[in-house]
Amino acid sequence: MRCSTVCQAVASCMNIPNTTTRTPPYLLHKPVLFSNGALVLRSPNGFSCRCATTSVPPGEDVFSVVTSNTKSEVDYLGQSTKGDLNLNFGIDGQALQGPIEEVAKMEAQEAENLLQHLGIPVPYSARHSPRGIFCTRTLNLRSISVIGYDMDYTLMHYNVMAWEGRAYDYCMENLRSVGFPVDGLAFDPELVIRGLVIDKEKGNLVKADRFGYVKRAMHGTRMLSTREVSEIYGRELVDLRKESKWEFLNTLFSVSEAVAYMQMVDRLDEGVIGPDLCPLDYKGLYKAVGKALFRAHVEGQLKSEIMSKPELFVEPDPELPLALLDQKEAGKRLLLITNSDYHYTDKMMQHSFNRYLPNDMSWRDLFEMVIVSARKPEFFQMSHPMYEVVTGEGLMRPCFKARPGGLYSGGSAQMIESSLNVHGDEILYVGDHIYTDVSVSKVHLRWRTALICRELEDEYNALIRSQQHRATLIDLINQKEVLGDLFNQLRLALQRRTKGRPAQTLAATHMDDNELTESMQKLLVVMQRLDQKIGPMLDEDGELFNKRWGYLSRAGLWDKSHLMRQIEKYADIYTSRVSNFLHNTPFMYFRAQEQNLAHDSYTFGHLRRDN
């Protein structure tokens, strides 16, 4: 093959404009191995192409995949190399001329240029987007053999106003049927956000930081002032282990319950709920609301309505089936593990998947195994009887061993591991519930985990739009800090002077009494005026996401929310929707970013000043 022909072939394969006289900059110095064994080394000068050949024995593969049957090790970040490619034939290290640092730098630039030309985002730019996949613990997707998925709010996203609104309506109707005063109440999804915590003893809804300190609170539907929050929770931390007191809003399914409960707290405070309806305390009221919502789910009317018109409740995502198809074709064994029953699962998956799959594929063709009525979180913790679904009508028979390709009800994660002969960190489980899906599978089975949190897209965009507000706020806080430092030094100088001792420095000791007092007075006035400006701006921070609670992942200007701490602790990666995997390959290596410590900024600051 002549050099110009090689360049034409490469350009044709990659849809790159044809060129025979000059190799484009993004094709320089890149080896391309063709199926006939020809090895092309793109010239570093950009004007010609030097062709080399390597002999590949007939019937042999150029690459081989590292499997557990060969020899998988761990890399320098402790990740399994299972799923990586080895080069059986072709170029070796001697084909790379020069120090590896220089070669890698040039190759990385060329790779970035080529990605840009192909319209594919480079990995670091993909992370900095509303639909990025964010990594808290390094994850080599190549080493994952099995990917399990939850269904509700994971593989399919419901319109919150529609789905949770109807759940709320059924809940309120059930409350009305037993005598609760619910007239005049309406579903308000802006009243709560995921990650808040219900205080069942006080009838409050609170937002805590990563340490459990309450930063914002609402009693009924009334937001509490900063002083009230301090008086109520100044000596108390949110501890999710105290299940009798605290209820964490783990998922969007919690929205309807929380809205109903907080509205009914108002009615209880108004004295219009009688003792014949429930115990006249907030904990008893919570049980009554929970029971009404449970009836809405169990009696089946809600799901029947959704199944009859899924287009009103499910937000379509054409990219979603294609993302799973990429994973399946890359050798990943896909599982569906859902608490929903067979009929609901089949109907909703048909609606969400079948029309977007090629070649008349069905949603069932994507999954090696489907588990319905899984009863999570117990599914990950203990063994339950398993039944095989054997007919389209949902008829079942007892089953003691799962097999690939099967459709089952119940069972346990241990049965899945045994059937597929995979364990622990070979499995990635993807779900939306921080406890039922992510925490339990991580703690009990050491599965790798991914959390789906659709609200991330709105939060990311809100943070972008509020950049100027936050920059102004931080600038004002920094100004006050400088003024406060000076005020404190002058105050100390004045204190020492009244005790007949010299001040911190000779200049401070010799300051005139009037000058010292006037400087402190002026500084105090300026700081008080700054407080009047900073306070409301802090309250406004996050309003673009939610006017009551601010951002999902933050508690205050700089600190993380309790939800974000849970995500960091239990989810290896998190993202807004499963289809975001389509923008990353099934071979992606997700690398955790540097975690800054409180003293890092000071260390780096000294380094900058020294340089």
From TrEMBL:
Entry's Gene Ontology molecular function annotations: 5'-nucleotidase activity; metal ion binding
Pfam families the record matches: 5_nucleotid
Record has Cell membrane as a keyword: no
Similarity field: Belongs to the 5'(3')-deoxyribonucleotidase family.
Protein name: 5-nucleotidase domain-containing protein 4
Protein origin, superkingdom: Eukaryota
NCBIfam families tied to this protein: HAD-IG-Ncltidse
Source organism of the structure: Nicotiana attenuata (Coyote tobacco)
Keywords, comma-separated and alphabetical: Hydrolase, Magnesium, Metal-binding
